[in-house]
Amino acid sequence: KKLVEKTDILFDHDHWGLDHGCWSVVKNMYPDADIPIIQMSIDHFKSPQWHYDLAKELATLRKKGVLILGSGN
Questions:
Q1: Does residue 7 surpass a pLDDT of 60?
Q2: pLDDT attached to residue 31
Q3: How far is CA 4 from the centre of its chain?
Q4: CA proximity to 5, closest of 44, 70, 53
Q5: Which of these, 47, 42, 52, 49, lies nearest to 19 by C-alpha position?
Q6: pLDDT at residue 34 in the model
Q7: Helix (H) and strand (E) counts for the chain?
Q8: Could you report the per-residue pLDDT of 14-67, keeping only the tens digit for each?
Q9: Phi, psi (deg, nearest 5) at residue 45
Q10: Between the CA of residue 19 and those of 36, 56, 67, what are the distances in Å?
Q11: Rounded to whole angstroms, how far apart are CA atoms 71 and 21?
Q12: pLDDT for 5 beyond 60
């Protein structure tokens, strides 16, 4: 959460597991489940600019070797 400072995000890690759209992709890539996963969803109440700004903040993770994977419709 410290990484994302300009874009307001919420974590719901206490109530949900991975969505089937994430799980069905990642289970084949990492069958031993030996990597941490943070699942994110598009917020249809937010503007495209909001999502773009969030992506810019997350770009520092890519520079550190973190896999950023998008899936879904």
A1: yes
A2: 92
A3: 12
A4: 53
A5: 42
A6: 86
A7: 2, 0
A8: 666 777 777 888 889 889 988 877 777 778 888 999 889 888 888 888 888 787
A9: -85, -15
A10: 15, 24, 18
A11: 7
A12: yes
CA separation for the pair 65, 18 (Å, rounded): 22
The token duo for 25 is 């992709």
How far lies 9's CA from each of 5, 27, 45, 46, in Å? 9, 26, 13, 11
**C-alpha span between 40 and 70 (Å, rounded):** 9
**Helix (H), strand (E), coil (C) string for the chain:** CCCCCCCCCCCCCCCCCCCHHHHHHHHHHCCCCCCCCCCCCCCCCCCHHHHHHHHHHHHHHHHCCCCCCCCCC
CB 25 within 8 A of CB 69: yes
Q: Which amino acid is at 5?
A: E
pLDDT of residue 6: 66
Asked if pLDDT for residue 73 goes beyond 60, the answer is no
